[in-house]
Design a protein that fits this description.
The complex is a heterodimer of chains A (308) and B (411). With 308 residues, chain A is an alpha/beta fold. Chain A folds into two domains: 217 residues, Rossmann fold (3-Layer(aba) Sandwich), CATH 3.40.50; 61 residues, Alpha-Beta Plaits (2-Layer Sandwich). Chain A has eleven helices and 13 strands. In chain A, helix 2 packs parallel to helix 4. The radius of gyration of chain A is 23 Å and the shape is elongated. The two termini of chain A are 25 Å apart. Chain B folds into two domains: 260 residues, no CATH class; 110 residues, 3-Layer(aba) Sandwich (D-Maltodextrin-Binding Protein, domain 2). Helix content of chain B is 71%, strand content 5%. Chain B has a four-stranded mixed beta sheet, sandwiched between helices. In chain B, helix 10 packs antiparallel against helix 12 and helix 14 packs parallel to helix 19. The chains are: A alpha/beta (308), B mainly alpha (411). Chains A and B meet through strand 5, helix 2 and helix 4 of A and helix 1 and helix 11 of B.
Chain lengths: 308, 411
């Protein structure tokens, strides 16, 4: 698929400390690409460099093959966001569209459609300061997509949103992607990302940790784990086949299984003496991978799973 | 530049729709006007209540009415009463009162040529020196009448004699005087006009400061900067608030010109559109640009008006620098202090405006040097402000220290 944004070997230092080290990724037309990482990992810095709000020390950023980033083709919802207080919603939406050189008449029509879509119908003349935080965020989201951008960059779009609004945002992002918009999404809410994105880029301490297709990543990193409730001897559990590691807390044991395990046969071969009150098999979630990386435990790395 | 104008238009529209700005727009001139009227009212009533001199006249000559008319004619602030008390009694009375005088007009006084006046310790300073002396005229007339002069003789004698040089040059003198007065107004009117423009755009320049730090507080800067460059945003703000300042100036003048025309009875428009005005307005605009650059830069370093540090506070005081020079410049428009004020870019517009309206001969060399200095510093401060603005506007939640600002400037 057509590459819309290409970031290559981005480097940036602040006060002698390297914030970004050789960050490279692409965002393609019609896909949702997620940048994941704990706070301070360098997500927002990467995005600000793409937006030309900061300049990288080294590396290149290309938009559709050009080094000049056409700002009017990009929609941007920054992490640090807000709106002018004492103006009405339609005015600020039209102003932001005007700054993107978008025709005003069309902007007004689209704004009304979107306000309706986001349950803000009839609020176009309401002053921004009367909006709740969530409503403000919806207006900011509308502002970032009003001018039909080819690339949409959303920095933590879900923070502070209630589940209903989150759903609205997700729907809209999906339909935009289906319509061909390339979306770059940054977040630390793994569950949301997991169900949204096509590809992901996980960053920690300014470096790439994981980069790839969501399904591939899951297949590669998200091994099965088996959670057993019951009183069991740690040594017995560790002695089971295909078990890489066991975490035990009171009467709950989590068995991390190796990548190539055949779950059905593995279950069949469980010894009879194991005390099972409850048993569940599921994959390690992105969330766990994320926490694992963020807390620098690097347990997955020990087992040689993470390809640097 | 197109984006800068979009930003300017927005800032303009946003403020023009803002109630508090609109109220301020009209309230400032109304308040100033109100204070002017109020102070003149207070001043007037003060004069009348306190300084009215009570004049008691013991009139044995029958000139009381004439004196009353004389006092009225010269608009003395007198309250005239007839009295029959003796000189001794009068002296007693005066010990307890203020602003009071007793005049004894009797034949003895006419004969000796000395009219006794007893006054209280506190009395209007001009009373003895000037006002009473005007009474000599009517009394003299009476004296002459008593000597039996005819009406014709009387008229001839009582006519004042004046020495007057009889050559061409002096005959023009009164006309010259009038011209000088007019010239004064002629130079003051454009100067005052430019002064009002300078003042209003500096006031609106202060709004830039709030606007820049508000941009940070509302966290809207990053959204805007995804569409425009920091430079364009800064220019847009400076242009937008310049237009707002012009609106403020127009409102000011809308109040000021009718009042000036009515109160001082001068053809304002005739005096206004003179070549000097171009220089004055140029000075005002340069002054604005300098302050605007300063404010927009400093505003971007602050997260909040209320947490302004010492450094920022000092910068905010700079526009008031010209006021330091007002006294010395009025005392001596060509003097040392006036020159110093002219060469400091921050006080130059104000000081030069004041000097040029007062000086008859313009010190062209000084003006040119000052203009050059001003231009250079406008350019320099715009550059610096641009650098500070670029980094500062995205720094959320804290004020920048002078050290940090220095680093941004050097970057």
């Amino acid at each position: 698929m057509e590459t819309v944004l290409k970031v290559e070997k981005l480097r940036k230092s602040f006060k002698g400390r390297e914030i970004l080290r050789d960050i490279s990724f692409e965002v393609r037309k019609g896909e949702i690409m997620a940048i994941l990482g704990p706070n301070g990992a360098g997500k927002s810095t990467t995005i600000r460099n793409i937006m030309g709000i900061m300049y990288p020390d080294a590396g290149s950023i290309q938009f559709q093959g050009y080094k000049d980033i056409p700002r009017n083709k990009i929609g941007y919802l920054p992490e640090e966001r807000g709106l002018y207080k004492n103006v009405n919603i339609m005015d600020i939406l039209l102003y932001l569209a005007e700054l993107k050189d978008y025709p005003l008449k069309k902007a007004r029509e689209r704004a009304l459609v979107y306000l309706k879509k986001f349950d803000l119908e009839g609020k176009d003349k309401v002053s921004v300061e009367e909006l709740s935080k969530g409503m403000g965020q919806k207006v900011q989201f509308i502002a970032s997509i009003l001018h039909e951008p080819e690339l949409l960059i959303l920095d933590e779009p879900f923070s502070g949103l209630d589940p209903v609004s989150q759903e609205l945002f997700k729907q809209e992002m999906r339909s935009l992607a289906a319509g061909g918009t390339a979306i770059l999404l940054s977040s630390h809410q793994m569950n949301l990302v997991e169900e949204m994105c096509d590809r992901l880029f996980m960053i920690h301490h300014g470096q790439k940790v994981i980069y790839g297709n969501l399904d591939d990543v899951k297949r590669e990193y998200a091994n099965f784990k088996c959670t057993i409730r019951g009183e069991n001897n740690l040594n017995v559990l560790q002695g089971l086949p295909e078990v890489q590691r066991v975490e035990q807390k009171e009467d709950t044991s989590i068995l991390y299984l190796s990548k190539d395990v055949q779950i059905a046969s593995w279950l069949k071969n469980l010894p009879d003496q194991i005390d099972i009150n409850e048993l569940s098999i599921d994959r390690i979630s992105l969330h766990e991978i994320f926490i694992d990386i963020a807390t620098d435990r690097n347990l997955l790395k020990e087992e040689g799973v993470v390809h640097g | 530049m197109g984006n800068a104008f979009k930003v300017a238009k927005w800032e303009f529209k946003r403020n023009m729709k803002n109630k508090s700005f609109l109220i301020g727009l009209f309230l400032t001139p109304i308040l100033m006007l109100g204070f002017m009227i109020l102070s003149s009212l207070i001043g007037d009533s003060d004069n009348q209540a306190k300084n009215k001199t009570r004049v008691f006249i013991q009139d044995n000559l029958g000139v009381f009415n004439t004196i009353q008319e004389t006092a009225k004619f010269h608009q003395f602030n007198w309250e005239i009463h007839k009295t029959e008390i003796s000189e001794k009694e009068a002296m007693e009375q005066l010990k307890t009162v203020e602003n009071t005088a007793y005049i004894f007009l009797n034949q003895g006084a006419i004969n000796t040529g000395i009219i006794p006046v007893y006054s209280s310790e506190e009395i209007n300073s001009s009373f003895m020196d000037q006002e009473v002396q005007f009474l000599i005229g009517p009394i003299k007339t009476l004296q002459l009448k008593q000597l039996g002069l005819t009406g014709e003789q009387l008229a001839a004698v009582s006519k004042d004699l004046v020495f007057k040089e009889a050559n061409g040059a002096t005959s023009e003198e009164p006309v010259d005087l009038g011209d000088a007065g007019k010239d004064m107004m002629k130079s003051i009117v454009p100067g005052a006009f430019a002064g009002i423009i300078l003042l209003s755009i500096i006031f609106s320049g202060m709004y830039i400061f709030t606007s820049a730090s508000q941009e940070k507080k509302d966290k809207v800067a990053e959204i805007i900067l995804s569409s425009v460059t920091p430079g364009e945003l800064m220019q847009g703000k400076i242009i937008g608030y310049f237009m707002l300042g012009m609106v403020q100036a127009v409102v000011f003048l809308g109040f000021g010109i009718p009042i000036a025309t009515w109160k001082f009875d001068i053809p304002v428009f005739e005096y206004l559109f003179v070549p000097e005005l171009i220089l004055y307005v140029a000075l005002a605009i340069l002054g604005y640009l300098l302050y605007a650059a300063l404010f927009v830069g400093v505003g971007a370093t602050m997260s909040d008006m209320t947490t302004a540090g010492n450094f920022q506070g000092m910068v905010m005081m700079l526009p008031f620098l010209p006021f330091v020079f007002i006294g010395p410049v009025i005392a001596d428009p060509g003097g040392l202090f006036a020159q110093i004020g002219t060469y400091i870019p921050f006080s130059a517009p104000g000081v030069l405006l004041l000097r040029l309206t007062m000086l008859e001969e313009w010190p062209w060399i000084e003006i040119l040097i000052a203009l050059a200095l001003l231009l250079v510093s406008v350019w320099l401060f715009m550059k610096l402000a641009g650098k500070i603005f670029k980094v500062g506007i995205l720094m959320y939640g804290k004020n920048a220290t002078p050290q940090e600002i220095w680093k941004w400037i050097r970057a």
